[in-house]
């Protein structure tokens, strides 16, 4: 009798386990990758979720299951910014399962990444909005989009994705991203929460979100650069005091000639720096522009922002040199409205993405990861989308989400000049939440890795010492440390 019960239970377990394995679409399993020798430490899936409406939207994702306990560990959606940049940026250069070693005249060699975020979570790398990376539509009018439509489309993607992967629907779910994903993340989170309240199925087990060096509020972000430059010793006390006097602490929108001149002097002083990490070298002068091209910076980057479309603004702001290609109108205001438009700085990015470009445009790689030929050549950041920043400041979104009990971690590499930590610190303080964990260092590898402050409503601000704009790229072990602690609900 005992044997019968044992085998009955065992049979039931095997049936359930078999169902668990079959739930994920087996045709989308990534079995091998060119450049990598060995077995993956967890399952990988890749493919498309298609949304049908006025136009057919084909959203591409790469899904890495957790190396720990995939049936219990959180599912995290990762979004890179731009707008217009592929989330393969995060996969290749930041916290994906592999480190990529550049090949000599061939494909890069892949090694397992000891600091992959898949060590502690399931993670979805999504190319969004459509028109970015491998996501595409046969109707290019779909490439005209904005904050609100992107949030709506990505929410619909998630609902269909969980239908494809029902075994993960009960896992805790988080949304994470960096740079312009400072807009993507809270707007998407708001849509997810609204869907939960309306009883939309499947019910996503949304727990919270995290944003790294994220765009949040034009005015606060715009006013952050001058104090950052002064605090970092990039401008003199005299230049700082002059700007404060003439601009009355409104550096964002110079309203007088003297203020404009003071800001221009500051801009000239910092023009030769890498805005994504002031400690790293950069190419700006015309002579160095040729050197940058010789070092294999992709043509897609060299051409970012170039357009013949009338009545457009083209700015190199918010993330990896993205083109703000939208009709000039109220609300489309960059960090440096006049200065960047009038400066003589050459718009050559301070990064080299040849490895990702080479690997992801290889036919064998694209076949292995189920990327459609209809998507066209892969570019880290595309110039083909037309994007409207129509959601305004993100501060009301953050207040709304955190006041409902959703957890939030705002982290910031403290040497990023693109979206400086001074702005992130200012807006997090502006929420008016009570400080429950006073400003203190946090530790990684036995050393001070940055500073953190905890607020009521499960809201945390954190800096990463010595890091630039893309924190996991500059400080991979430190990033995995705060990521894993925060997901586990531990004190960072």
From TrEMBL:
Domain of life, per lineage: Eukaryota
Keywords associated with the record: Carboxypeptidase, Disulfide bond, Glycoprotein, Hydrolase, Protease, Secreted, Signal
Keyword Disulfide bond appears in the UniProt entry: yes
Entry's EC annotation: 3.4.16.-
InterPro entries assigned to the protein according to its UniProt record, in alphabetical order: AB_hydrolase_fold, Peptidase_S10, Ser_caboxypep_his_AS, Ser_caboxypep_ser_AS
Gene Ontology process terms (BP): proteolysis; secondary metabolic process
Pfam families: Peptidase_S10 (PF00450)
Signal peptide positions (record): 1-23
Keyword check for Calcium: no
Protein's cellular compartments: Secreted
Gene Ontology cellular component annotations, sorted alphabetically: extracellular region
One Gene Ontology term of the molecular function aspect: serine-type carboxypeptidase activity
Family: Belongs to the peptidase S10 family.
Descriptive protein name: Carboxypeptidase
Organism: Daucus carota subsp. sativus (Carrot)
